[in-house]
Design brief:
D-amino Acid Aminotransferase, Chain A, domain 2, eight-stranded mixed beta sheet, 23% helix, transferase, aminotransferase, BCAT-like_N, Aminotrans_IV, transaminase activity
């Protein structure tokens, strides 16, 4: 794919109530990615920088290397109402031009964004399917770009027609390893006994081909999970799985392996 035909992207949540929830819960992370209405913004800026380096986009890197406070001021100009939550999609091209798409965000229990995660038992779990075709790992799976055709095709094969659907599909590499979700990072309970010093949850390593996600980085930094390969053969129909991304936080789900997806 030509470098002229795609942009690098990152999607995150703006929520004015987030810093207060962080303060009340005493949540912590390093560097401090939570002390801002922009969820994990330092991680998003890092993610975009790393993508610009990977694709050798010097002008984009110059824009992204601006001071963090300056970057916040830039994003602030795109927030229509700072008293409401928003979904932001940052789109940066090779010339360093940044477009920020802003849309209203649904209200979510903000504790779902923090470690330790509090997910209400009353919440309806997402259905999590497994793609029926393989995805070839590439720079466009490691780094988030507008080249999303493979993700769109995986969602279509799983029968997921809208971003509002409470459903996800897991991408699989040619070795049968879980890479990531189409819009989330997945977490699975360990298959073998873990000692008390090991996390209970695992997430696929980047070597399996998935995205360097921001909520994934947060979960690893907080010691919630460890990296470990997991294959389709390891999955169990109906098992509990967690998902996360920079807009919705952490989500409860169940693996669906049976053919009936209604």
């Amino acid at each position: 794919m030509s470098s002229q035909s795609f942009q690098i992207i990152s999607t995150l949540r703006y929520d004015p109530a987030l810093p207060n929830v962080v303060s009340q819960r005493g949540a912590d992370a390093s560097p401090d990615p939570l002390n801002t209405p922009y969820y994990l913004l330092p991680y998003h800026q890092d993610r975009l920088r790393n993508a610009a380096r990977y694709f050798n986009w010097g002008n984009a890197l110059k824009f992204l290397d601006q001071d963090y406070a300056q970057f916040v001021r830039y994003l602030d100009t795109f927030i229509p109402d700072k008293g409401k939550p928003w979904r932001l999609r940052l789109v940066v091209d090779r010339n360093g031009d940044c477009k920020v798409e802003t849309n209203p965000a649904a209200r979510i229990e903000l504790e779902n964004f923090l470690f330790p995660f509090i997910i209400s038992p009353a919440s309806t779990p997402w259905r999590i399917f497994v793609d029926s075709a393989y995805t070839i790992p590439s720079g466009h799976t490691t780094h988030k770009t507008t080249a999303r055709e493979g993700y769109t095709a995986a969602r279509a094969r799983a029968g997921i027609v809208s971003l509002q659907d409470t459903a996800e599909v897991l991408l699989v590499n040619p070795n049968g390893e879980i890479m990531e979700g189409s819009i989330t990072t997945p977490y699975f309970r360990r298959r073998e006994e873990a000692d008390q010093n090991e996390p209970e949850w695992i997430t696929p390593p980047l070597s399996s081909g998935g995205n360097v996600g921001t909520s994934r980085r947060y979960a690893l930094a907080q010691g919630f999970c460890a990296e470990q390969k997991i294959t389709v053969k390891d999955l169990i129909d109906g098992e509990v799985c967690l998902l996360s991304n920079g807009v919705r936080g952490f989500i409860l789900g169940n693996i669906v392996l049976k053919a009936d997806r209604a």
